[in-house]
Write a structure and sequence with these properties.
The protein is α+β, with helices and mostly antiparallel strands. The chain contains two helices and six strands, in the order βαββββαβ. About 20% of the residues lie in helices and about 35% in strands.
Length: about 110
């Protein structure tokens, strides 16, 4: 099993969610996050004063899938979230040792 974490732009969330749902992804977790990478933040003007925003707001999407479906999920996120501009985000993939559904006690792939 794999855990896929994708940090993407806010306005791409709905498109990514719909594309993953069409691919049969049963569930996901969404978190609003703030950070920076190459984008290094940006400047904004408020009441005539310009100030720096160091951390850019993004959305982190987390999905747990069977290992054989991981590449399909990654490809779908890339295709759907990509704008070609700096700040499109990152995808992190890690191995999951186990998954347990609390309600039934099911483990592994059955719990997904």
């Amino acid at each position: 099993m794999k855990k896929i974490e994708a940090v993407i732009r806010h306005f791409k969330l709905e498109d990514v969610k719909n594309a993953l749902s069409e691919q049969g992804v049963a569930g996901m977790t969404i978190t609003e996050v703030r950070g920076f990478g190459r984008q290094k933040g940006h400047t904004e003007t408020y009441r005539g004063t310009e100030y720096a925003v160091d951390f850019v707001p993004k959305v982190k999407l987390e999905v747990a899938v069977d290992s054989d479906r991981a590449q399909m999920v990654i490809d779908t996120i890339i295709k759907t979230a990509q704008t070609g501009q700096i700040g499109d985000g990152k995808i992190f993939v890690s191995d999951l040792a186990d998954t347990i559904r609390i309600r039934t006690g099911e483990t592994g792939g059955e719990a997904l």
